[in-house]
Fold this protein.
Amino acid sequence: MQNGTDLYALDINGAAFVQACGGPCSEGCVTLARIGEDAWALGDSKRPNAQPLRFTTEELDAAGIDPARFGLNV
């Protein structure tokens, strides 16, 4: 399992972020990318230059974020 420090050491250049929307995406959407085994990056399409936050699968689950909603497999 990754820890928070290790997650930010992972290179996310080239990560494939996908969006999931609960409604119209005209105001922006949350983006998610798998960046390693048990590692995810969560971004904001309204702030594309902001550094994405990084989470383990367990942390995403605890926050109620399901990668399947983004078309991604755990």
Remarks:
- The mean pLDDT is 86.
- The first strand starts at residue 18 and ends at 20.
- The first helix runs from residue 4 to 7.
- The beta strands are 18-20, 30-36, 39-44, 53-55.
